[in-house]
């Protein structure tokens, strides 16, 4: 039976009482799309999350993560009060301690001995105050953000090409384009609402062409007219070759371009040199020709690029290669055209605006601009403004490791999991004399090494603004009263600043005051340039004077009132002080004026370096089963996101709905590679290199390119005994942006055989480690632990049952159901309390013997004894088929399997017949992939 599961939860104790009478409009805390969300409560006192139909980013739609936000607002793993050296302290004492320690460190070792590491999870107001304190008053550039890890290469590309970090496009350009290129962007999983808009437009206009450039077969191929399954690290060759093709085909108007650009010939020379490598990137000549001709022949082309482009040692160059193609063919500054960098985090753009990247100042002011730096110092009334760029993320933690930085304040991020070279980061935090962490959780990998922990407010409690990927500023509004003593990040930073001696500059009373000051800074550049340009200069040098203005300008809000701030409507910047507020979409470069001093855009000559290519080397691996050596290659490891999870699962991991799809981390591997290494689906695989090793579950799929593997980023020591995938990633960075290369690590693989597999289902979290491989999964009503052990099945079963009976059961009214089959090495036992499901132990020889996925419904069984017994006694294949496929409408996987295997139904037919995909739409791409696999099997 289909049912629409609305995202709801029994109202928490700290819900804002006003919510019972009014809808609260806020924004989703996940990806950079910046979807509007409406929060309310129903008659049963449950929180209801719905899409905001008036918000231009999503028009009322939400993806699977957004729809299930209500499952994540409980207060588990929250810190009540500040802690110093493991001891609870008052706010006053904790703030005093941090301020005094920072002052002591600066006095003894200088201002470069301290650093902040901040996050795209912060609101713009938080970001602004942190940047102001470090760069404006401590006087060091040592503040960087985890956005360095996802979009700093795009920032560098924008600045080199346009003279400023400008995203020139809007979401609406996607639906007005004739060709949409998704380059290194799994839009279907990472920005689902935009992919939904693209899908709907493709249905209206089948002539719209979609090109996917990705080494993996992702859900995006659902819409692809052409999938270029390129070899990892070869995007620069492809786009340089496209530029060379455009020149050869006469698609470039050199004379016209000379009026608004420079550097074309040098870029063409580099592109021609790279085009000679085109036959080595793993694509057929036919597919390459089709891509080039589609790009050349259509006037309206949008190229969406994301982590597959950015997270590379040549990420900035790859971004510029894409921009070069758009500049050369005049596919920029017009409706339906342009390069479009999609940011990963909800406020990565806001961090760029306030200068949270180490190499910029607030308001897009650069360290090299002496006049504007002087203007900023006057605006802030400081004589200690930082004069040089600080350390970027990797260099910053290297400096901690080397003892150069003595005190670091980490805000709203988990660098021990997210940064590469895990062991070095851990060692650095262990060595650092003072580690301060502000976070909304009480424990995670990084917090293990914190000397001071400040309890910060989380989504639903915070108030401020965020800027999405199309430069649209929206409000995040509170609907929960803060848990315990949790405070806003801007307040925490301001209080430390006051205690450091900077009271006057940080006497903020509300986030509105901070935003207004931020708006004032944004207008500094334009105010300064206009006042410096007299009437004669303006008449004679109108073009260059205009070019000197900054694109980022929201000075129209410098004097906004509290009421205006509370009633804020989502708007794109720029919003200059001299102009009226523009609510409609805005597009940059329509007049072909850019932000370099000559008002011209720059073509950047870029060329592939050797390390940008797939340089897998021969490797000899011992096959333990055949007891002989087999020749294979080192694999290229790609890392990234799963559809239903977010970063390190601090929020999304609380939802049983979101963990149901991917209960454990998996290694995606091509069937031919798996066969050579004697790896079967569901096996554990040891993934290793010189930096570390990781045991992970094998997922054998044709969707993975040969000699390359993929592991998601969402697991860490907090929920997985093996830790995080970043321990395998080297700290190799882009030479311009400093962004790490998360997509091209080299690893070897070995099948790891175990003697037993188990699932332990309990009401509360377990602290005991039962085996080397153990994964915690949140399910509705409790937790499921996935365990792989060296013990035999009977021994593991006894060990788990002993644990449950000693530690997990209530004192009375317990009973149990046993359906074990020792001859089959399949042991199953469920425990009941007051006739209700309470715990379960399931042990088998292989992972495939256990009811993974479907067991997430364990605590939702009917009251009849037969239904409870069926959980542990039913035929395993039938149980697996009952796994939920469409989370929104509660549609079982068996319904989809039957429809696909019939071989007669289209994607539209399956949606109509089963209803799957008609909720948030997230599973439509999965159906498309299943159909694609079915077609491949028929061909074979």
Automatic annotation (TrEMBL):
<keyword id="KW-0479">Metal-binding</keyword>
<keyword id="KW-0411">Iron-sulfur</keyword>
<dbReference type="Pfam" id="PF00384">
    <property type="entry name" value="Molybdopterin"/>
</dbReference>
<comment type="similarity">
    <text>Belongs to the prokaryotic molybdopterin-containing oxidoreductase family. NasA/NapA/NarB subfamily.</text>
</comment>
<dbReference type="Pfam" id="PF04879">
    <property type="entry name" value="Molybdop_Fe4S4"/>
</dbReference>
<keyword id="KW-0534">Nitrate assimilation</keyword>
<dbReference type="GO" id="GO:0016020">
    <property type="term" value="C:membrane"/>
</dbReference>
<dbReference type="GO" id="GO:0051539">
    <property type="term" value="F:4 iron, 4 sulfur cluster binding"/>
</dbReference>
<protein>
    <submittedName>
        <fullName>Nitrate reductase</fullName>
    </submittedName>
</protein>
<keyword id="KW-0500">Molybdenum</keyword>
<dbReference type="GO" id="GO:0043546">
    <property type="term" value="F:molybdopterin cofactor binding"/>
</dbReference>
<dbReference type="GO" id="GO:0016491">
    <property type="term" value="F:oxidoreductase activity"/>
</dbReference>
<dbReference type="Pfam" id="PF01568">
    <property type="entry name" value="Molydop_binding"/>
</dbReference>
<dbReference type="InterPro" id="IPR009010">
    <property type="entry name" value="Asp_de-COase-like_dom_sf"/>
</dbReference>
<dbReference type="Pfam" id="PF04324">
    <property type="entry name" value="Fer2_BFD"/>
</dbReference>
<feature type="domain" description="4Fe-4S Mo/W bis-MGD-type">
    <location>
        <begin position="21"/>
        <end position="77"/>
    </location>
</feature>
<dbReference type="GO" id="GO:0046872">
    <property type="term" value="F:metal ion binding"/>
</dbReference>
<dbReference type="InterPro" id="IPR006656">
    <property type="entry name" value="Mopterin_OxRdtase"/>
</dbReference>
<dbReference type="GO" id="GO:0042128">
    <property type="term" value="P:nitrate assimilation"/>
</dbReference>
<dbReference type="InterPro" id="IPR041854">
    <property type="entry name" value="BFD-like_2Fe2S-bd_dom_sf"/>
</dbReference>
<keyword id="KW-0560">Oxidoreductase</keyword>
<dbReference type="InterPro" id="IPR006657">
    <property type="entry name" value="MoPterin_dinucl-bd_dom"/>
</dbReference>
<dbReference type="InterPro" id="IPR027467">
    <property type="entry name" value="MopterinOxRdtase_cofactor_BS"/>
</dbReference>
<keyword id="KW-0408">Iron</keyword>
<dbReference type="GO" id="GO:1990204">
    <property type="term" value="C:oxidoreductase complex"/>
</dbReference>
<dbReference type="InterPro" id="IPR006963">
    <property type="entry name" value="Mopterin_OxRdtase_4Fe-4S_dom"/>
</dbReference>
<dbReference type="InterPro" id="IPR007419">
    <property type="entry name" value="BFD-like_2Fe2S-bd_dom"/>
</dbReference>
<dbReference type="InterPro" id="IPR041957">
    <property type="entry name" value="CT_Nitrate-R-NapA-like"/>
</dbReference>
<dbReference type="InterPro" id="IPR050123">
    <property type="entry name" value="Prok_molybdopt-oxidoreductase"/>
</dbReference>
<keyword id="KW-0004">4Fe-4S</keyword>
<dbReference type="GO" id="GO:0045333">
    <property type="term" value="P:cellular respiration"/>
</dbReference>
């Amino acid at each position: 039976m289909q049912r629409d599961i609305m995202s709801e939860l029994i109202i928490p104790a700290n819900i804002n009482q006003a919510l019972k009478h009014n809808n609260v409009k806020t924004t989703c805390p996940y990806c950079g799309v910046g979807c509007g969300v409406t929060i309310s409560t129903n008659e049963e006192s449950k929180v209801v999350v719905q899409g905001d139909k008036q918000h231009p980013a999503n028009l009322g739609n939400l993806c699977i993560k957004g729809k299930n936000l209500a499952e994540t607002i409980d207060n588990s793993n929250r810190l009540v009060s500040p802690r110093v050296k493991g001891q609870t302290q008052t706010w006053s004492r904790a703030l005093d301690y941090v301020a005094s320690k920072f002052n002591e460190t600066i006095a003894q070792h200088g201002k470069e001995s301290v650093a902040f590491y901040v996050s795209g999870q912060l609101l713009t107001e938080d970001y602004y105050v942190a940047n102001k304190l470090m760069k404006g008053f401590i006087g060091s550039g040592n503040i960087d953000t985890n956005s360095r890890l996802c979009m700093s290469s795009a920032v560098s590309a924008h600045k080199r090409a346009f003279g400023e970090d400008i995203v020139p496009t809007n979401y609406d350009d996607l639906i007005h384009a004739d060709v949409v290129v998704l380059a290194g962007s799994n839009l279907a999983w990472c920005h689902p609402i935009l992919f939904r808009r693209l899908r709907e437009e493709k249905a209206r206009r089948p002539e719209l062409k979609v090109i996917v450039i990705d080494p993996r077969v992702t859900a995006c191929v659902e819409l692809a007219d052409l999938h270029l399954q390129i070899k990892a690290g070869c995007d620069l060759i492809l786009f340089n070759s496209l530029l060379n093709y455009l020149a050869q085909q006469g698609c470039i108007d050199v004379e016209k371009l000379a009026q608004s650009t420079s550097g074309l010939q040098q870029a063409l020379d580099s592109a021609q040199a790279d085009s000679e490598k085109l036959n080595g990137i793993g694509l057929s000549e036919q597919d390459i020709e089709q891509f080039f001709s589609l790009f050349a022949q259509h006037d309206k082309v949008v190229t969406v690029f994301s982590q597959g482009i950015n997270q590379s040692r040549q990420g900035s160059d790859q971004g510029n290669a894409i921009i070069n193609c758009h500049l050369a063919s005049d596919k920029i500054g017009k409706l339906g055209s342009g390069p479009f960098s999609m940011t990963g985090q909800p406020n990565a753009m806001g961090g760029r605006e306030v200068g949270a990247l180490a190499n910029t100042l607030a308001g897009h002011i650069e360290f090299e601009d002496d006049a504007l730096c002087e203007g900023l110092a006057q605006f802030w009334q400081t004589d200690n403004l930082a004069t040089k760029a600080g350390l970027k993320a990797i260099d910053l933690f290297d400096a901690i490791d080397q003892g150069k930085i003595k005190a670091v304040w980490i805000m709203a991020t988990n660098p021990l999991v997210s940064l590469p070279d895990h062991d070095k980061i851990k060692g650095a935090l262990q060595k650092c004399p003072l580690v301060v962490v502000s976070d909304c959780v009480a424990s995670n990998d990084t917090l293990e090494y914190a000397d001071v922990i400040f309890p910060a407010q989380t989504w639903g409690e915070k108030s401020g603004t965020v800027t999405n990927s199309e430069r649209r500023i929206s409000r995040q509004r509170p609907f929960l009263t803060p848990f315990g003593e949790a405070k806003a990040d801007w307040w925490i930073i301001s209080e430390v600043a006051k205690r450091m001696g900077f009271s006057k500059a940080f006497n903020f009373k509300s986030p509105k005051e901070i935003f207004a000051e931020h708006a004032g800074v944004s207008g500094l550049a334009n105010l300064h340039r206009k006042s410096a340009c007299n009437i004669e200069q303006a008449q004679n040098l109108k073009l260059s004077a205009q070019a000197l203005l900054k694109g980022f300008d929201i000075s129209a809000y410098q004097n906004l009132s509290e009421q205006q701030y509370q009633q804020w409507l989502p708007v794109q910047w720029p919003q200059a002080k001299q102009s009226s507020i523009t609510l409609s979409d805005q597009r940059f470069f329509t007049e072909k004026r850019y932000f370099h001093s000559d008002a011209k855009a720059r073509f950047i000559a870029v060329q592939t370096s050797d390390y940008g290519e797939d340089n897998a080397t021969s490797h000899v691996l011992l096959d333990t089963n055949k007891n002989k050596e087999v020749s294979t290659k080192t694999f290229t490891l790609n890392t990234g996101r799963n559809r239903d999870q977010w970063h390190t699962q601090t929020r999304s991991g609380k939802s049983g709905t979101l963990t149901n799809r991917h209960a454990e981390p998996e290694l995606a591997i091509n069937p031919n590679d798996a066969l050579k290494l004697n790896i079967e689906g569901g096996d554990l695989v040891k993934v290793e290199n010189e930096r570390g090793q990781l045991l992970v579950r094998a997922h054998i799929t044709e969707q993975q390119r040969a000699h390359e593997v993929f592991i998601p980023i969402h697991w860490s020591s907090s929920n997985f005994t093996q830790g995080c995938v970043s321990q395998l990633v080297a700290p190799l960075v882009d030479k311009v942006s400093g962004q790490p290369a998360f997509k091209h690590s080299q690893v070897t693989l070995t099948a790891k055989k175990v003697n037993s597999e188990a699932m332990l289902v309990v009401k509360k979290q377990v602290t005991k480690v039962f085996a080397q491989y153990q994964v915690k999964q949140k399910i509705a009503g409790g937790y499921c632990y996935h365990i792989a052990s060296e013990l035999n099945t009977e021994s593991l079963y006894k060990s788990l049952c002993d644990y449950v009976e000693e530690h997990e059961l209530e004192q009375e009214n317990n009973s149990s159901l046993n359906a074990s089959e020792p001859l089959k090495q399949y042991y199953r036992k469920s425990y009941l309390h007051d006739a209700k499901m309470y715990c379960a132990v399931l042990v088998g020889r292989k992972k495939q013997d256990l009811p993974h996925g479907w067991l997430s419904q364990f605590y939702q069984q009917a009251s009849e004894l037969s239904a409870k017994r069926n959980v542990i006694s039913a035929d395993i294949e039938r149980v697996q088929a009952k796994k939920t496929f469409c989370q929104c409408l509660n549609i079982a996987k068996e319904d989809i399997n039957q429809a696909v295997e019939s071989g007669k139904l289209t994607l539209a037919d399956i949606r109509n017949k089963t209803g799957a995909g008609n909720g948030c739409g997230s599973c439509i791409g999965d159906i498309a992939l299943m159909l694609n696999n079915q077609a491949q099997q028929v061909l074979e």
